[in-house]
Specification:
Blueprint (H helix, E strand, L loop, with lengths): L13 H6 L4 H4 L12 H8 L14 H9 L4 H9 L1
């Protein structure tokens, strides 16, 4: 499983496949997210020097919950598994 900082499984993400995305660990630091621009979830985890959002003391934060509600709701469960 190739998980993004916010818990999306990049190997099964339709946006990764459709847009030939390499995953946020490669694309996001360069501002090359599939939707264009920066990813605030990635930037937040990177700023806190965390390997992923599941290691954050605020996990799951409001922003992560909002994004998970809209798309890829499994991301929070993926991060819970990683955090243990």
């Amino acid at each position: 499983m190739n998980l993004s900082m916010c818990g999306i499984d990049c190997d099964s993400c339709k946006y990764c496949k459709e847009n030939k995305c390499q995953g946020c660990r490669i694309s996001a630091p360069k501002g090359e997210c599939v939707w264009g621009g920066r990813c605030e979830l990635h930037d937040c985890a990177e700023k806190k020097k965390l390997p992923h959002c599941g290691k954050c003391e605020s996990f799951p934060c409001v922003k992560l919950e909002e994004w998970a509600t809209e798309e890829n709701p499994e991301r929070i469960d993926n991060l819970r598994k990683l955090a243990t």
